[in-house]
Amino acid sequence: MTGWMTAAAGLIGAVVVALTATHVIGGSSGQPNTTLRDWAASANKICARSNDTIAALPKPESIGKNTAEAVNLIRTAVTIQRQMLRELTALTPPEGKERQVTQFLHTGAEMSGVSSELLDDLILRDVSGVRRRAAELSQISNKFNHAATNLGATTCAEGGTASDVFGGG
Fold first, then answer.
1. Which of 20, 55, 18 is CA-nearest to residue 39?
2. How many CB atoms lie within 10 A of CB 85?
3. Cα–Cα distance, 38 to 88 (Å, whole number)
4. CA distance 116 to 3
5. What's this model's pTM, rounded to 2 decimal places?
6. Residues whose CB is less than 8 angstroms from the CB of residue 156 and which lie 6 or more positions away in sequence, other chains included
7. pLDDT tens digits for range 69-94
8. CB atoms within 10 A of CB 150
9. In whole angstroms, what is the distance from residue 85 CA to residue 133 CA?
10. Residue 60, CA atoms < 13 Å, CB-side half-sphere
11. CB 121 within 8 A of CB 95
12. Domain range list for the chain
């Protein structure tokens, strides 16, 4: 993924978060209010599918020093992560928790953007960039996990990100 593609992915994530926050997408106003418990249960189901799919990917040790396989592994994890974020964004936020859910989704979009940048660095064989992005991704993953836990989406805090492919997060 090139720099402009990473920027476009980040912009798309920001637009999705903004549209969700303003209720343009992410549920119908004609539906009954979602409780935090119901939202968390739905979020946990989405994250469980994502976590299980990422856990089923080959382990980095089995790849060895094959950069092409590592790139494909991270690319797959980034794709799974984006799908998870799209599904989470489609959930109607619980009344009174819209700001927290929007922040959670924003952090997820930020995590997705950094994951894409990590992929770019790996493709370019930029070792210092990979190290920098991996450290940044670890910090953002911790922020995402904290936000998920605060919303009761504890399964979302268990993994399922690109950093988890290589033992981070």
1. 20
2. 20
3. 13
4. 9
5. 0.75
6. 43, 44, 46, 47, 88, 144, 145, 148
7. 878 888 999 999 999 999 999 999 99
8. 14
9. 20
10. 13
11. no
12. 34-165
